[in-house]
Design a protein that fits this description.
Blueprint lengths: L4 E6 L1 H5 L3 H10 L3 E8 L3 H7 L9 H8 L4 E7 L3 H9 L12 H5 L12 E3 L3 H11 L5
Antiparallel strand pairs: 1-3, 1-4, 2-3
Inosine-5'-diphosphate binds next to α4.
GO biological process, one term: CTP biosynthetic process
InterPro entries: NDK-like_dom, NDK-like_dom_sf, Nucleoside_diP_kinase
GO molecular function: ATP binding; metal ion binding; nucleoside diphosphate kinase activity
Length: 141
């Protein structure tokens, strides 16, 4: 069986506020493996694919604007239970609900300006991880 993978993004707020290293440190501390990593400027097409379940929502333009406000860091990370465990490490979607000790609880700074700026994305299932990996790493098998 191939190892479980997740697609993790450090969103523009995480990059701008200097939290790339912190996110990577937390991944490494859990002994997960970074299989691929790059800095990218997200295109509208990539974002519409990535957020295909939100693209028709009234707030989608605020997500698009936020996600194009600066570079992001995309990673493929693998390890046992990575999808479920990293979701716990990231914390709740809305940073005001995210517990201290989670990435969002510790580092999210702005979440009342239309878009929810919450530092990281991580895949919510093994299936969505494989789907999202194709969007950000089309060169990967
Ligand atoms: P998740 O990132 O915790 O998986 P999702 O519900 O999949 O949460 O939403 C994806 C992203 O879209 C969120 O992380 C957040 O940045 C943004 N988002 C979700 N719901 C809203 C909303 O109601 N207003 C603005 N942005 C939202
Ligand atoms: Mg999600």
């Amino acid at each position: 069986m191939t190892e479980e993978r997740s697609l993790i993004l450090v969103k523009p707020d995480g990059v701008l506020n200097g939290h790339i290293g912190e996110v990577i440190t937390r991944i490494e501390n859990r002994r997960y493996q970074i299989k691929a990593l790059k800095v990218v400027n997200a295109s509208k097409e990539q974002l519409a694919e990535h957020y295909n379940q939100l693209v028709d929502k009234p707030f989608y333009p605020s997500i698009e604007e936020f996600m194009q406000s600066g570079p992001i860091v995309a990673m493929i990370v693998s390890g046992k239970n990575i999808v479920e465990t990293f979701r716990k490490m990231a914390g709740a979607t809305n940073p005001s609900d995210a517990l201290i000790g989670t990435i969002r609880g510790d580092f999210a700074r702005e979440w009342d300006k239309g878009s929810i700026q919450n530092v990281v994305h991580s895949s919510d299932s093994i299936e969505s991880a494989e789907r999202e990996i194709k969007i950000w790493f089309p060169e990967e098998k």
